[in-house]
Each structure stands twice: as structure tokens, then as C-alpha cells.
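Chapter review: from sequence to fold.
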Amino acid sequence: MLDKQFNPASAEKEIFKKWEQNNLFAARPQSGKPPFSIIIPPPNVTGVLHMGHALDNSIQDVLCRYKRMKGFDVLWQPGMDHAGIATQVVVEKLLAKEGKSRHDFGREKFIEKVWEWKEKSGGQIINQLKALGASCDWDRTRFTMDEGLSAAVRKIFVKMFKDGLIYKDKRLVNWDSKLQTAVSDLEVIQKETVGTMWYMNYPVENEPGRFITVATTRPETFFGDTAVAVSAEDERYKDIIGKNVILPIVNRPIPVVADEHADPEKGTGAVKITPAHDFNDFEVGRRHNLPMINILDVHAKLNENVPAEFQGMDTMTARAKVLERIKELGLYVKEEPNPMTIPYGDRTGVVIEPYLTDQWFVDTKEIGRRALEAVENGSVKMYPENMKNTYYELMRNLQPWCISRQLWWGHQVPVWYGPDGHMFCEETELEAKIEATKHYGEETPLRRDTDVLDTWFSSGLWAFSTMGWPNESDEYLKRYYPTSVLVTGFDIIFFWVARMMMMSLYAMEEIPFKEICFHGLVRDEKGQKMSKSKNNGIDPLEMIAKYGADALRMSLLVQAGTGRDVLIGDSRVEAYRNFATKIWNSAKCCEMNDCKVAEDYN
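The C-alpha cell string follows.
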């Protein structure tokens, strides 16, 4: 007999318990039913359920439950991401409370500490998804650092390296000086501010009294200048293209080059080129074969490539000192306010520096071609369809993908170096040693690369690594790959969706999913984006505790037209709790009156 009053907390908990006890969510490969499969976008192991997760997983749950009712054999594959930077930061903060750092333990012991933390806390997000009512096949929960998935990472890295698609190069990356690692664009927050544009004169070599005036927001980087760029069409500078100007303070001659990067209508039309500290300047430097002078160390302090009086200064101190010297030399022109954005690390809050360093890269242009074609020819369908335009723009302007991180937690790069720096890329150290012996003619000590791989590299393999690859005979891989549909937010279309497309087509020669459903953002009732600064975030678990999981899910789903943003708040969720109560009362009424299901619906 149903309780007199609807109590979501107890009712939903009991129902979910029965579902699990009867293993109702398990995929059944031998069932003979047509397969339907979805892979869950793996939440970070450090994470807690937020409203984006709630929306994302509610949509997936509806699809899976509907397909089960339609007679399909459904695999909803759950799992978690090891979240390299996020997890290492969490564990390091815990160690800091004890007055220790990872360096007190060393790499191997520190990684053991991370695994200990993961075992204690890593299941939190899974339990939260269960509280939401997600009907995943929980026995098939996967983790990006599981041995099977790690084997997939090693295999694909080695294959791509040997195919020339993974390589090491000295390029600019986003550098977090506190974590002392490269970070992805997704881990960089762009904050708008009003800065300053400073104008200064660079003397033209062998032409006393003639100058080129350049404008910059970063005077402290000018020690790394290796050219001044002007437009070939700018009449003011045509006669000095190919000549030199003198870099003040250090008195170093640098060339004036003609480049499309210089806009005659912007500023003075002359742009200082600092290839090692600006992404646009880096490309100019490559086009003109300019020297690249890195003037910062890993702590974002000026290094040995600047005059001794500036060495060791942080960027702000160096900025003031450079401007002071420029004024003393009589080369200062003016300054003016300048609206701009400054990049900050989302976990550390430090300014992110463009930093020239050796990193591992993927040639995305080569593997991206087929991923672009798969959407262009309709092999993969996107909803809403206008998301294809965003995808096309991204895929037609691909840059090398930096996949290395200077961390300890993550998939360590499977490359070993001989005494002369020769690289041996193999899946195991033993295989590397065998190849080294062949190469050197005798057993030779090797040193392993210390970098780990970007988290998005392993999650890019998620669609097939979770199903048993590289074991190509795995019954789940044969039956459920490619998956039927991917449900995800539009904000990771490049970081995850495009990379899964690229990596899957490369490894499997097949698309990872047939359809992609993009949903919008979850906002507060006023339509504002949820954020800590606005203090308008809503904890879905609190909503579930107050109104029940069904009420939360319904309030999200009724608004979730493809691509539309969803507004959420107490009043909306409470309204659907009341609706659920009416259904409960109707069922109670039927039960009390011994209602029977009609056999003849006609």
C-alpha cells in the first residue's frame, strides 16, 4: 500500500534500491534485441554534481529508458575522468595542510597518495548520479586511469608517434607559473579590464633622429623583441622595411619586417614582435624565421636573457623598471587607457603566460580532416543543426594540440631517451630497452620522459577504450560501438567532441557516435549564468533533498529544447514536486479503489 503522503526522499530511494537489486539497468549482449548505446561524458573524479550534470544526465536517462521500453538492449556506459590538474591540486592542498608537498614524497609515493584519495572520495560523483536516478549500467563503470584504458592510451600514443602524428616541438603554450605546467584553453579564464597602452620610440639604425613608435601593453617583454612588423602597404614605413631599428636599453639591432599582422589603421601601424611571449607574434616569428628569445623562467620571473639588473624580477616590477629606463633615455612617448582581457589560471588565479617550451603535440590537421568530413557528409548528425557551423569553423582552423603536462598524476608519456637524446617510443619499458639495444649495439641505460598527457587525450579515446579496445574481439566493442548518440554541452564541442571524432576515426576507422545532441546552459531564474561571484549557484543535491529527483529532472527537461538554455530555481522545482504529488495521489486513489488495467484499450 502506498503511503498516504508522497515523500520523494524515501520513495525514490526505495525504488532505486529495487532497480539496482534486480540489475535492471544492465546491458544484455546476448539478448538478441537491437542495441542502443550512450557513453556518459565522464565527470571529474574530484567533482560534485552540478546543474549541468543534472541536465546532461537527465536527457541521457530519458533516452535510455525510452529505448528500453521500445525493446532495445541499452548500454549506458558510466565512468569518471582522472582530471590530471584538478586532482593533483586537490591532493597537494591536502598535503599542504600537513606542512608537506609532493616533493617530500617523490613521484611514485605521491601517486600512491592520489590513488588513496581517489579510492576514498572518487565514488562521490557516482553516488550523486544515482541520487539523480540515472539508470546507467553501474557494473561497467570505467575510470580513465584503469589499466585497460591506460593500455589504450599507450597503444594509441605509440601508433601516432610512429605514424608521425605525435611529435615534440618548441612552441608557445599557456603556462601556469604556480602549477609550473602547460594548461589548456579550457583552464584559462579571460577577465576583462582596462589596462594601459604605452608608446615608446625605437631608433632607426644609422638614421639619427628617426624613430619607429611602437605601442605595447607589456613593456616588460620587450627584451624578447626580435623584430618590428609593419604593413607592406603602409607608406610611412615602406622605405625602412628590411632595415634595422635599435632595441633600447640592450642596444640590439632588430629588423623591420613586412607582415599582414600589422594593421596600418591600428595604433601606430608598427608592432613590436616578441615571438616567445605572444601567440600572434610567434606565428610572425615563424613566417620570418626570427630568433625566439624566452625572457621568463618557469616562475614567470625574468631570466638570464635580460640585463643583470632586471634578472629575477617579477613581471610587474620589471614593467615599472623598463618604463623608468625608457623615460631616462628620452624614448617614452605617451600612455593611454586600453580595454583588454587578461588570462588567469582557473585553479590558481595567477596570470597565464604565453611561454616557449618543449612540449608534445598532435598534428590535428591531419587527423581532423576525416572528422570534418564525417559531419559534412551526414555520417554524424548534430542537433541543433546550427552547431555544425561552430564545428566547421573549429575544424577548418585547427592548430597543433599540446598534449603534454608537467604533472605527476596522469598517463606518463611512453617515451624513453638514450644518453644522446635519441627517443624510443614503446608501450613498455622492456620494449624500449630492446629497441635501444638494437640501436646502440649494447644494453644502454634509458631515462623516461617525465611529462604526463593532457586529460583530454585519454578522454578522447572514451568511446572505444571503455568498451575494451585495444582488445578488438571484446563483445561490447563489437556490439555497442559506434555508440548511438552523444549528449553533451556545447561548451566542450572542441575539447571533447571534436577530439573523440578525430581519435576514434584514427584508431577505429569508424565514427564514435551517430548523433550528437547539444544542450544549453543551466541558468538561474533570472537568466543569469551561475557563478561563485554572483552567489547564485544551485546545488542539485539540495534540490533533490527538498523536492525529489523527479521534480528536479522534470523542471530541467521540460525546458530542454535542443540548444536552449534552461532556467532553474526553487519555484520551478517546487511546481513539479506538486505535479509528482498529484500523480502519487492518483495512484493512491486507484489502489484504494482496486482499479484494474483495462485489457482492451479500444
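Two observations follow directly from the output. The CA atoms of residues 9 and 545 lie 6 Å apart. Residues 570-592 form the longest helix (23 residues).
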